[in-house]
Specification:
By secondary structure, this protein is α/β, with parallel strands linked by helices. The chain has a domain at 2-195 and 227-254: NAD(P)-binding Rossmann-like Domain (Rossmann fold, 3-Layer(aba) Sandwich), CATH 3.40.50. The chain is built from ten helices and twelve strands. It has helices spanning 13-27, 65-74, 89-94, 97-118, 160-179, 201-210, 230-243, 260-275, 300-305, 314-324; strands spanning 2-8, 32-39, 56-59, 79-82, 129-135, 183-188, 190-192, 215-218, 224-229, 249-252, 256-259, 282-285. The strands form three sheets. The protein has a seven-stranded parallel beta sheet with strand order 3-2-1-4-5-6-10, sandwiched between helices. Strands 7-9-11 form a three-stranded mixed beta sheet. A two-stranded parallel ribbon has the order 8-12. α1 (13-27) packs across α7 (230-243), α6 (201-210) runs parallel beside α8 (260-275) and α8 (260-275) crosses α10. The structure holds nicotinamide-adenine-dinucleotide (NAD). The site of nicotinamide-adenine-dinucleotide has 30 residues, from α1, α4, β5 and β7.
């Protein structure tokens, strides 16, 4: 199938990995299609992350009804992968305004424009698909001893970022159930990979090590997170895209779960091995209020549907990144 794909937030961390993965597939003759990157280029967006020129760029806000609709119509878009969001929890705690605007209103606008445009076509929703990128944080914290959240579990977000993502998920679900809108909601665990913004956990630790600065860890560092490579995540997303609309929710998670402290210690020891010098120390700073202890999601559906997708290893990524420096 020749996709005419609109990638919102394509200049961000995961969006750019997804486009770079499609380019690899294109070179291998496995992907045919046009890509439109629709991105506002906030502080988090950078087109230099995209390693191909084979796309059209539209600088725009997902809340801009006219421009987004016009982009869909002008390029006769058949598929949307909606990454665009405000994503940093600490920023959302300081000020939720942009999170409400982009994550909730922006998603409502993407849905409304796609629904309106696709319904002008004779085939309507047939062959159309929107993949909405969400997060495991919408389920809130779950104890390691409890059953992991599956796709039917209730949403219980416990930070402002997660609350806006949960609200966006509900809007997408409303369209799926209420209007038979062709969408899939993907709830992913934490991603790692090249070109992530330095405000996020792994790049922040790497930047501290490079600058021989103490590594700040919230509280005792016991918060558990599951890590998935952005490239592996892109493979799951492409598999979902090629399968077509199933109108479902799917959890996608990585294979390694670590406490923040254990991850920081692992990064330090790989640094020491690669550079043969002592790594900067870890320093414990005041914890976030009600910092979620564990995002624990069930991956039964993911393994049943896509057993063949292999995971990129976190340690291999860390080692390769240090060796490149
Ligand atoms: N990074 C993770 O570990 C992770 C885990 C689970 C889910 N997610 C979700 O994946 C998606 C992408 O995350 P990321 O880490 O790549 O984010 P990011 O912060 O790196 O990139 C976000 C991108 O969206 C763009 N953007 C922001 N506001 C916009 C607006 N109003 N209009 C158009 N573009 C706008 C930015 O310019 C940027 O390019 C998000 O929806 C996030 O909630 C991320």
């Amino acid at each position: 199938m020749a996709f005419r794909l609109c990638v919102t937030g394509g200049a961000g961390f995961i969006g750019s990995h997804f486009i770079n993965y499609l380019e690899e597939l294109r070179i291998a003759g496995e992907f045919k299609g046009q890509i439109v990157v629709y991105d506002l280029l906030t502080y988090a967006g950078d087109l230099n992350r995209i390693k191909t020129e084979d796309y059209v760029f539209v600088r725009g806000d997902v809340t801009d009804r006219d421009l987004f609709y016009q982009t869909l119509a002008q390029h006769d878009i058949t598929h949307i992968v909606h990454f665009a969001a405000e994503t940093h929890v600490d920023r959302s705690i300081l000020d939720i305004t942009d999170f409400i605007k982009t994550n909730i209103y922006g998603t409502a606008n993407v849905l409304a424009c796609a629904s309106r445009y696709w319904q002008t076509l004779p085939e309507k929703f047939m062959g159309k698909h929107m993949i909405h990128i969400s997060t495991d944080e919408v389920y809130g914290a779950i104890k390691a001893s409890d059953t992991p959240a599956n796709e039917a579990s209730p949403l219980a977000p416990s930070n402002p970022y997660a609350a806006t993502k949960a609200a966006a998920d509900q809007l997408v679900l409303g369209e799926i159930y209420g209007n038979a809108f062709p969408a899939t909601i993907v709830r992913s665990s934490n991603n790692f990979g090249h070109n992530q913004n330095e405000e996020k956990f792994i790049p922040k630790i790497m930047a501290c090590l490079k600058a021989h600065r103490a590594i700040p860890i919230y509280g005792d560092g016991s918060q558990m997170r599951t890590w998935l490579s952005a490239k592996t995540f892109s493979k799951f997303l492409y598999a979902l895209m090629t399968e077509g609309n199933t109108g479902e929710i799917i959890n996608i998670r990585g294979e390694e779960t670590l406490s923040n402290l254990a991850l920081a210690q692992r990064i330090r020891s790989i640094y020491t091995r690669c550079f043969g010098c002592e790594a900067a120390p870890i320093t414990h700073i005041t914890d976030r209020k009600n910092h979620d202890i564990f995002y624990h999601i069930d991956n039964e559906k993911q393994f049943k549907r896509f057993p063949e997708i292999e995971f990129e290893s976190l340690s291999d990524f860390l080692e390769a990144t240090f060796k490149d420096q």
